[in-house]
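Pipeline run #58 for the internal structure catalog. This entry was flagged by the ingest filter as a single-chain record with no existing model, so it goes straight to prediction. Upstream metadata was stripped on purpose; only the residue string is passed forward. Reviewer on rotation: M.T. Logging verbosity set to normal.
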Amino acid sequence: MKTANFLKFDITCPLCRSDKIKQARNFGCYKIFDCKNCKGSFSWPMTAIAYENKELENKDFNNTVKKSLRRNFVYCFVSTFLQKISKQNILDVGAGQGITLFHAKRFGYKTYGTEVSDKTIKVLRDNCPFVEAVKTENFDNFSSSWPKKYDVISCLDVLEHTENPVLLLSKIKDKLNDDGFLIISLPNKDRYYYKLGGLVDDFVPKEHGGDNPPYHLTFWKKQTLEKILKRVGFDDYCVITGGLIWRKNIQIKGRRSFILSGLLKMFYLTCQFLPLFIIDIFEKWGTHLIVVAKNGENRNELKEDVKYTLKKIYKKQAPFFVDGEIE
């Protein structure tokens, strides 16, 4: 596709390589394109920033871990799923301050983590001294003592920041054991913020630029993930949406909406009594997409494991879950 602004370039979708794209909006010096083929969106140029999460150094890790399961849908799901499948080791790509690996250690996993900055590696090691961690930007530089393959590889809220997410997924798949599990989370492009036309505030921090480049370079829907997983070579996978029930503090133009927050609080408190299909309808507008994919043939076991996990977390039966005041 060529436009008046891009006569020198043939722009294709970096996710599915389709040229069936249209320009959706501008953000500073970036253009945002929608892909008609995979339903994803991407920025042009696809140029990431050298991102340093300075907030991690000031966070009380023990307090964050304590609240993580009741405040964060992704951590609640991942920890419950890790306990269910009970594997030997896990590699967390973009491990951050170490919450995922902290929970994995509780279940007896041998833990490995990667990050892109020295500062974050230091935070990770300080919080989780049991983790073997390495700085890498290209999914290389692994220690020779590390496993060649892993039982579980997690990549939580990472792909949307990278310049070539499909290549990263391919490299991750190559490091999975036979019957190994991949767990991904991404912001949901079909979440409540977009469905309501931006009338309520988004969950992505404004101080980082919001859901825009160069903070986020790609934007994913459920259909997008399904196409990319097949392209990379996964046949056995589940894609779920969720997290809206965990959004207990809804704001409109920076001010807390007591009505919307109250309704979500009520739903959070009562969801353990609701059938899963009712929750699924509501959670289609959720903050996150979560992928669980299994290397190897499709045996339908994965769907049962995911269904079990969802039932456990909505019934407040996640491992180590301690309910408390809804912030």
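catalog note: The CA atoms of residues 214 and 309 lie 34 Å apart.
catalog note: The two ends are 47 Å apart (CA to CA).
status: ready for reviewer M.T.
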